[in-house]
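Appendix B. Extra example for self-study. Work through it before the problem class; the solution is given directly after the inputs so you can check yourself.
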Amino acid sequence: NAGVTQTPKFQVLKTGQSMTLQCAQDMNHEYMSWYRQDPGMGLRLIHYSVGAGITDQGEVPNGYNVSRSTTEDFPLRLLSAAPSQTSVYFCASSLRFGGNGYTFGSGTRLTVV
Amino acid sequence: EDQVTQSPEALRLQEGESSSLNCSYTVSGLRGLFWYRQDPGKGPEFLFTLYSAGEEKEKERLKATLTKKESFLHITAPKPEDSATYLCACSNDYKLSFGAGTTVTVRA
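Solution. Structure tokens for the complete assembly:
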């Protein structure tokens, strides 16, 4: 099993550009989520999904879109990148929400210049 | 508003010197409290879930405990390979709220 796979690992964007961060899991997990991690602030929830076709906003959703057309994939789209979106992004999944721990991907380090 | 606060921010230990990390929380409708380990450049790795006050979980040199207001992660006789950032998170509804973490450095 590959677990949770995130691509790319590193990305540099110019202000105003758009891009999609990919997340895929092969564990048949219902619940998937996106977090951003900034120094001194902990992980903050951006968006989450409890199953294919169902998504909802987390704590810091502005500037990001998500969709969940399959159980396996949960891409995160940056609509118009801003320097404030410079961060490390993690995708996480679990069999169901509140289950015995989440599996995290290895992260995408994004820099917006 | 849900809050999860971890202390200390950083902890430097000598190998074999036991210590504890604290996670205090104010979360309405707590469903579970999680501990994760994060190594530099990697995603968090699940350690424990605690569901009710009085519960304890152990894994090698780590032991997690839970009260109604806080959780402790005890590290007994740490080794250099225990060096990492330890994250605490609380769940309610469909959200995990994370603390900022405690970075533990264990010197040989």
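Self-check: The two ends of chain A are 36 Å apart (CA to CA). If your reasoning did not lead you there, revisit section 3.
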